[in-house]
Amino acid sequence: MSAGEQPVAIERRGAVLVIAINRPERRNAVDAAVSCAIAGALDDLDADPALRVAVITGRGGSFCSGMDLKAFLEGDRPELPGRGFAGVTESPPAKPLIAAVEGFALAGGCELALACDLIVAAEDAVFGLPEVARGLVAGSGGLVRLPRRIPQAIALEYVLTGARMTAPVAHHWGLVNRLASSGGALEAALALAEEIAANAPLSVMMSKRIVREAPGWPENEIWDRQRPLAEAVIGSEDAREGARAFAEKRIPEWAGR
């Protein structure tokens, strides 16, 4: 990164916000400045009704190698209070977040990808939680989220050995949603983001919320908990617009309310 460049590059592409870690000389390792920038971008995502989806990626052929160990030794911590590592692992946004992974997504970088709702990866990308080989623990969500995304025994094997998982294997187990050619992860993620952004924003956000929260609901409370959330969307202007557009055979014009 040359003088004057920001550690995180933010770009709007229509309704999609692209957040790119811009420290290729450090394999996009995360320090406090990166975490603050990502947190700020995600706050903008949720606050701006014109933005529907975010894609997080890394520049220079690598997604993220985890915590910046050099900065850590100098007293810099990449965890933000209430937000966690990279400003997202403990407090993901309400709107959908997609990881576009090239190269390495290791340690905290893997945990950053796991904090995203969907993952698009280049065929030669690599994931891993090598903390056990360094006398550490993947405490920024890796040990919690990986066994929720893939079979627990498979997750445990990778966690306990610290082995790397290739993108095709990750796709096989359902960790990766879509594979792309090398260098094509961002464009493939943007295509997925545009598919999502075409839908009603309230419906998308509430659907994400229910999918994320429902596994923790007691079985006898599922319908009572879901009903008010669904009704809040069904009673919206967009619900009526969706019905009208369907009847009139046209593309709906979403108002986000």
From TrEMBL:
Pfam families found in the cross-reference section: ECH_1 (PF00378)
Domain of life: Bacteria
Gene Ontology molecular-function annotations: catalytic activity
InterPro entries xrefs: ClpP/crotonase-like_dom_sf, Enoyl-CoA_hyd/isom_CS, Enoyl-CoA_hydra/iso, Enoyl-CoA_hydra_C
Entry similarity comment: Belongs to the enoyl-CoA hydratase/isomerase family.
NCBIfam families: PRK08252.1
Name assigned to this protein: Crotonase/enoyl-CoA hydratase family protein
